[in-house]
Specification:
- The chain is built from 6 helices and 13 strands.
- It is about 25% helix and about 25% strand.
- The protein has helices spanning about 5-20, 145-155, 190-195, 205-210, 220-230, 240-260, and strands spanning about 25-30, 35, 45-50, 55-60, 65-70, 75-80, 85-90, 95-100, 115-120, 125-130, 135-140, 300-305, 310-315.
- It folds into 2 domains: about 5-155, N-terminal domain of MutM-like DNA repair proteins; about 165-315, Helicase, Ruva Protein, domain 3, CATH 1.10.8.50.
- It is globular.
- It has a 5-stranded mixed β-sheet.
- The longest helix has 20 residues, at about 240-260.
- A hairpin with a 2-residue loop joins strand 12 (about 300-305) and strand 13 (about 310-315).
- With about 325 residues, it is α+β, with helices and mostly antiparallel strands.
- The structure holds a DNA duplex (16 and 16 nucleotides).
Length: about 325
Amino acid sequence: MPELPEVETIRRGLERRIVGKTIADIEVKFPKIFVGKKSEVEGLKIEKVERRAKVLALNLKKGKNLLFHLKMTGQLIYRSGGTWNVERGTGTEQKQFAGGHPSHDWHLPLPNATTAIIFSFNDGSKLYFNDLRRFGWCKVLDDKELQKIFDEEYGPEPIRLADARSHSSLSDEAQTSESKTGQALFNVDYLMQQAARFPNRKIKQFLMDQHIIAGVGNIYADESLFAAKISPLRKAKDISKTEWEKIIVNVRTILKFAIEHGGTTDSDYVNADGEKGGMQDYLKVYRKAGEKCPGGCGGKIVRITVGGRGTHYCPDCQK
DNA sequence: CCCGGCGCCTGAGGGC
DNA sequence: TGCCCTCAGGCGCCGG
């Protein structure tokens, strides 16, 4: 399920692939998933690919945008146009592929039964929005509407890599009070202030609330709390300042690490080239029920339900 | 405020 | 082998 690191990974891939291209045509296979009029964006050039929390926006000319939410099983996969002659196996087998160099993604047929929308660009390349469970959506929005959603529906970004180039990412730690845009910053003061608003909420649900923190979902909430040695059942009001600091550091570290590893492929997640992530090899508690605690405490990872979500933690070292 | 439950979907996995 | 049932899960919404 794409959370911040997965959506950011897709964003980076798309940025390299589709910025500067013009949307020539949109084919909607599942009408419920596409909200708005495609005629408003056909013919427009893509200027930028933005991420906020778990949503992805293609900024187009004329103040238009396409906003995507991948929910559980959404995929955004790019394929270049043209045909390719490819040798595989012993070299005797030669096959021609239409649409996209098959070096890494030839096994993934596109479009397929899960393909909800096909965006065709002016150079013959395509962007496929697949969604097996069809919870995801794509909306046509004006700049103003997009900004309103970004401002009102999502709390601060826990890391600020979206627009910054890699070498300037130190700005994360420099966050103190408030950003230029008026958006709150992800720091201890802010989290304690929010905790005062929802004192009895369990910390796991608190971390996953997109209005409070942008982009943390089930996997990284569990992983961050394990790293911080805090039980997912603790109430927000009972978290000490020192513990909030630990939460901040671990959320940031884990999200950044996950981005470096291309995100977690639990079931359907793939990047913009159709490739799986690598972060699943580094998860310590998520879906590890019954296994020995990797913290070396001698305990065992258990699975419980918190707020209706599967929650994995070590009761022995997460207090 | 907090919690539980439903709905949206479909494939995986367990029970028999 | 195969059918049926339940469940997962982001998120909005509703009711207690």
